[in-house]
Design a protein that fits this description.
Length: 221
Protein backbone atom coordinates (compact mmCIF):
# COMPACT_ATOMS: atom_id res chain seq x y z
CA UNK A 1 0.00 0.00 0.00
CA UNK A 2 3.04 2.27 0.37
CA UNK A 3 3.33 4.33 -2.81
CA UNK A 4 5.41 7.36 -3.69
CA UNK A 5 5.63 9.71 -6.65
CA UNK A 6 8.66 9.07 -8.80
CA UNK A 7 9.46 12.70 -9.60
CA UNK A 8 8.81 16.27 -8.53
CA UNK A 9 6.21 17.98 -10.77
CA UNK A 10 7.33 20.88 -12.94
CA UNK A 11 5.85 24.35 -12.25
CA UNK A 12 3.49 23.87 -15.20
CA UNK A 13 2.39 20.47 -13.90
CA UNK A 14 1.91 21.89 -10.41
CA UNK A 15 -0.23 24.73 -11.75
CA UNK A 16 -2.35 22.19 -13.61
CA UNK A 17 -2.64 19.95 -10.54
CA UNK A 18 -3.65 22.88 -8.33
CA UNK A 19 -6.50 23.68 -10.73
CA UNK A 20 -7.56 20.02 -10.80
CA UNK A 21 -7.54 20.01 -7.00
CA UNK A 22 -9.55 23.24 -6.83
CA UNK A 23 -12.24 21.82 -9.09
CA UNK A 24 -12.41 18.53 -7.18
CA UNK A 25 -12.71 20.14 -3.76
CA UNK A 26 -15.32 22.60 -5.03
CA UNK A 27 -17.56 19.63 -5.79
CA UNK A 28 -20.38 18.24 -3.67
CA UNK A 29 -19.14 17.28 -0.22
CA UNK A 30 -21.41 15.34 2.11
CA UNK A 31 -21.29 13.45 5.37
CA UNK A 32 -21.89 9.74 4.80
CA UNK A 33 -21.58 7.93 8.11
CA UNK A 34 -19.97 7.88 11.53
CA UNK A 35 -18.67 4.43 12.47
CA UNK A 36 -17.95 3.49 16.08
CA UNK A 37 -17.29 -0.18 15.31
CA UNK A 38 -15.59 -2.04 12.46
CA UNK A 39 -18.87 -3.69 11.55
CA UNK A 40 -20.38 -0.27 10.89
CA UNK A 41 -17.87 0.80 8.24
CA UNK A 42 -19.45 1.77 4.90
CA UNK A 43 -18.62 -0.42 1.93
CA UNK A 44 -15.17 0.37 0.50
CA UNK A 45 -15.95 1.94 -2.86
CA UNK A 46 -14.09 5.21 -3.44
CA UNK A 47 -10.41 5.88 -2.70
CA UNK A 48 -10.07 7.04 0.92
CA UNK A 49 -7.86 9.65 2.56
CA UNK A 50 -7.83 9.49 6.37
CA UNK A 51 -6.94 12.51 8.51
CA UNK A 52 -5.20 11.78 11.82
CA UNK A 53 -3.55 13.88 14.48
CA UNK A 54 -3.37 14.82 18.13
CA UNK A 55 -6.54 16.18 19.69
CA UNK A 56 -7.01 19.86 18.85
CA UNK A 57 -4.39 19.79 16.08
CA UNK A 58 -6.91 21.33 13.67
CA UNK A 59 -8.23 18.36 11.69
CA UNK A 60 -11.77 19.64 11.34
CA UNK A 61 -10.58 23.14 10.48
CA UNK A 62 -8.27 21.77 7.79
CA UNK A 63 -10.99 19.61 6.22
CA UNK A 64 -13.31 22.63 6.17
CA UNK A 65 -10.57 24.77 4.59
CA UNK A 66 -9.90 22.16 1.92
CA UNK A 67 -13.55 21.99 0.93
CA UNK A 68 -14.37 25.67 1.42
CA UNK A 69 -17.10 24.82 3.93
CA UNK A 70 -17.41 26.15 7.46
CA UNK A 71 -19.05 23.39 9.44
CA UNK A 72 -19.27 20.09 7.59
CA UNK A 73 -16.48 18.76 9.76
CA UNK A 74 -17.24 20.20 13.18
CA UNK A 75 -14.40 21.92 14.96
CA UNK A 76 -14.64 21.75 18.74
CA UNK A 77 -13.09 23.64 21.62
CA UNK A 78 -13.19 20.39 23.57
CA UNK A 79 -10.12 18.26 22.71
CA UNK A 80 -10.75 14.60 22.06
CA UNK A 81 -14.36 15.11 20.97
CA UNK A 82 -14.22 12.97 17.82
CA UNK A 83 -14.69 9.37 18.98
CA UNK A 84 -15.51 7.66 15.71
CA UNK A 85 -14.51 7.39 12.05
CA UNK A 86 -16.48 10.05 10.17
CA UNK A 87 -16.78 9.47 6.42
CA UNK A 88 -17.35 12.29 3.91
CA UNK A 89 -17.76 11.78 0.14
CA UNK A 90 -16.31 14.33 -2.24
CA UNK A 91 -17.79 14.68 -5.74
CA UNK A 92 -18.33 10.89 -5.98
CA UNK A 93 -14.56 10.57 -6.54
CA UNK A 94 -12.94 10.53 -3.12
CA UNK A 95 -13.79 9.79 0.51
CA UNK A 96 -12.28 11.80 3.36
CA UNK A 97 -12.18 10.12 6.78
CA UNK A 98 -11.91 12.15 9.99
CA UNK A 99 -10.26 9.91 12.59
CA UNK A 100 -10.35 10.30 16.39
CA UNK A 101 -7.66 12.47 17.88
CA UNK A 102 -5.02 10.98 20.13
CA UNK A 103 -2.86 12.20 23.00
CA UNK A 104 -5.44 14.14 25.03
CA UNK A 105 -4.89 13.54 28.73
CA UNK A 106 -8.54 13.14 29.82
CA UNK A 107 -9.25 10.64 27.06
CA UNK A 108 -5.75 9.15 26.82
CA UNK A 109 -6.66 5.60 27.84
CA UNK A 110 -9.80 5.34 25.70
CA UNK A 111 -8.15 6.93 22.66
CA UNK A 112 -5.09 4.73 23.03
CA UNK A 113 -7.34 1.68 23.10
CA UNK A 114 -9.17 2.98 20.02
CA UNK A 115 -5.94 3.41 18.11
CA UNK A 116 -4.58 0.02 19.15
CA UNK A 117 -7.83 -1.72 18.33
CA UNK A 118 -10.39 -0.40 15.88
CA UNK A 119 -8.17 2.26 14.29
CA UNK A 120 -5.30 -0.11 13.61
CA UNK A 121 -7.70 -2.70 12.19
CA UNK A 122 -9.20 -0.06 9.91
CA UNK A 123 -5.79 1.14 8.73
CA UNK A 124 -4.42 -2.33 8.11
CA UNK A 125 -7.50 -3.83 6.49
CA UNK A 126 -9.17 -1.09 4.44
CA UNK A 127 -8.52 -1.91 0.74
CA UNK A 128 -9.52 1.54 -0.53
CA UNK A 129 -7.32 3.52 1.91
CA UNK A 130 -4.79 5.41 -0.21
CA UNK A 131 -3.11 7.65 2.36
CA UNK A 132 -3.21 8.94 5.90
CA UNK A 133 -2.68 12.68 6.29
CA UNK A 134 -0.94 12.95 9.66
CA UNK A 135 -1.31 16.44 11.11
CA UNK A 136 1.30 17.97 13.41
CA UNK A 137 0.95 21.33 15.14
CA UNK A 138 3.73 23.58 13.86
CA UNK A 139 3.77 25.52 17.13
CA UNK A 140 4.81 22.66 19.41
CA UNK A 141 7.41 19.91 19.56
CA UNK A 142 6.77 16.52 18.01
CA UNK A 143 5.31 14.43 20.83
CA UNK A 144 6.09 10.82 21.73
CA UNK A 145 2.51 9.93 20.78
CA UNK A 146 3.10 11.35 17.28
CA UNK A 147 6.12 9.11 16.91
CA UNK A 148 4.09 6.14 18.16
CA UNK A 149 1.42 6.75 15.52
CA UNK A 150 4.09 6.92 12.81
CA UNK A 151 5.43 3.55 13.96
CA UNK A 152 1.88 2.16 13.96
CA UNK A 153 1.41 3.36 10.37
CA UNK A 154 4.71 1.72 9.43
CA UNK A 155 3.45 -1.55 10.91
CA UNK A 156 0.14 -1.22 9.08
CA UNK A 157 2.07 -0.53 5.83
CA UNK A 158 -0.10 2.52 5.13
CA UNK A 159 1.39 5.48 3.31
CA UNK A 160 1.19 8.59 5.46
CA UNK A 161 2.02 12.21 4.68
CA UNK A 162 2.85 14.69 7.42
CA UNK A 163 1.11 18.06 7.16
CA UNK A 164 1.92 20.89 9.55
CA UNK A 165 -1.02 22.95 10.77
CA UNK A 166 -1.36 26.50 12.14
CA UNK A 167 1.69 27.64 10.17
CA UNK A 168 0.58 31.26 10.29
CA UNK A 169 1.60 31.41 13.97
CA UNK A 170 5.35 30.60 14.13
CA UNK A 171 7.84 33.15 12.83
CA UNK A 172 9.45 32.16 9.48
CA UNK A 173 12.74 31.04 11.04
CA UNK A 174 10.90 28.87 13.55
CA UNK A 175 8.73 27.35 10.83
CA UNK A 176 11.79 26.57 8.70
CA UNK A 177 13.41 24.84 11.68
CA UNK A 178 10.23 22.85 12.30
CA UNK A 179 10.11 21.77 8.64
CA UNK A 180 13.72 20.57 8.85
CA UNK A 181 13.04 18.69 12.08
CA UNK A 182 9.92 16.97 10.79
CA UNK A 183 11.45 16.14 7.40
CA UNK A 184 14.33 14.40 9.21
CA UNK A 185 11.88 12.40 11.31
CA UNK A 186 9.81 11.44 8.28
CA UNK A 187 12.95 10.12 6.54
CA UNK A 188 13.27 7.43 9.24
CA UNK A 189 9.85 5.90 8.55
CA UNK A 190 9.35 3.37 5.78
CA UNK A 191 5.68 4.23 5.17
CA UNK A 192 6.13 8.00 5.16
CA UNK A 193 5.56 10.03 2.01
CA UNK A 194 8.68 12.21 1.72
CA UNK A 195 7.03 15.61 1.13
CA UNK A 196 6.03 17.56 4.26
CA UNK A 197 3.48 20.34 3.66
CA UNK A 198 2.95 23.48 5.75
CA UNK A 199 -0.64 24.72 5.98
CA UNK A 200 -2.83 27.28 7.69
CA UNK A 201 -6.60 27.04 7.79
CA UNK A 202 -6.68 30.74 8.72
CA UNK A 203 -4.63 32.19 5.84
CA UNK A 204 -5.02 29.40 3.28
CA UNK A 205 -1.27 28.74 3.13
CA UNK A 206 -0.57 25.33 1.58
CA UNK A 207 -4.25 24.48 1.10
CA UNK A 208 -4.10 24.56 -2.72
CA UNK A 209 -0.98 22.37 -2.71
CA UNK A 210 -2.60 19.83 -0.40
CA UNK A 211 -5.72 19.75 -2.58
CA UNK A 212 -3.50 19.06 -5.59
CA UNK A 213 -1.69 16.25 -3.79
CA UNK A 214 -4.91 14.55 -2.68
CA UNK A 215 -6.59 15.00 -6.05
CA UNK A 216 -3.92 12.74 -7.55
CA UNK A 217 -5.38 9.91 -5.46
CA UNK A 218 -9.03 10.44 -6.47
CA UNK A 219 -10.93 8.45 -9.07
CA UNK A 220 -10.61 10.03 -12.52
CA UNK A 221 -13.50 12.07 -13.92
Amino acid sequence: MVEFSSSTPTPEEMERDIEIGRVLFAGEFRFVFGAQQLGQLPDPVLPEIAFAGRSNVGKSSLINALTGRRALARASSEPGRTKQLNFFELADRLTLVDMPGYGFAKAAKAVKEDWQGMMFSYLRGRPTLRRVVLLLDSRVEVKATDQEIMKLLDRAAVTFQVVLTKCDVPKPAMLEAKMREVTAIVATHAAAFPDVLATSSETGEGIAELRAELARLANPV
